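A quick aside before the break. I want you to see a complete sequence-to-structure record at least once, exactly as it would be stored in a machine-readable document. Don't worry about memorizing anything.
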Amino acid sequence: METAGVKRTIGFYQLILTAVLLVIAWFIMAPFFWMFATSLRPAMDSFKLPPSLWPSVFEWDNYAAVFASIPFAAFFWNSMKVSVLVGLAQVASSATAAYAFARLRFPGRDALFILVLSALMIPHQVTIIPLFIMIRKLGWMDTHAALIVPHMIYPFGIFLLKQFMSTIPTELEEAARVDGASRYRIFREVIVPISMPSISVVAVFSFIASWNMFFSPLLFINTYEKMTLPLGITILQGYMGNGNMSALLAGVTMSLVPVVLFYIFCQKYLVDGTTVGAVKG
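That is the input. The structure line, written in tokens, reads:
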């Protein structure tokens, strides 16, 4: 009887916890749901009060109006190009640098790592003037290189992966070294597979930050055809912000699709990585 009472108590608390989490999830998802619903409303209902969460009329032409007003596909491709290249560069540089800091012994290693960490404390706006001068002298103004090259190093990614790689048992490397594996092969076939959960986190953060990047494109990109999607959305706001908020939110909704899909993909990969990278006893 006592065991049954304990089980009922645990079930009651789990039910309360589930209800609380559902309420929190609703408050998080409600703005996104409202945004999608508003993107399907007629223009005259964009500022309707009180706001409703479900459109009375589905106006799919709002999405067509986005493509008719701005070169949305070109902006989308530019953002995808910059985000993928920056993400690959940041993952590669973070993983290799983290492995060096976590596993190699060389003079000045700790001081250099502290220098990398200090970059986390410097706001991007502080370095934007010397960066602007450097980009102009290199002739990279109005090119995507100005958005890619300065962001190839990710100090937070180096810190995160270094902390994770420091926890990997050294016996795995020693066993691989006994089998004749080189340092590069150990990194590629031992360290990287085990570190995939943390690498996935770095990839998600890098892709989202690059996809939402607005300040750098605003400074370095001048040509209409080379603009990224966040900058292009502001142009769409200039076209429709005063009269058709639904079309503007349609463009914002489409801009969120790659980020959501990438996050869902990496979330699944995180779970797979924790099992594949598990150390068998």
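Two observations worth writing down. Residues 2-38 form one domain. The radius of gyration is 24 Å. We'll return to this after the break.
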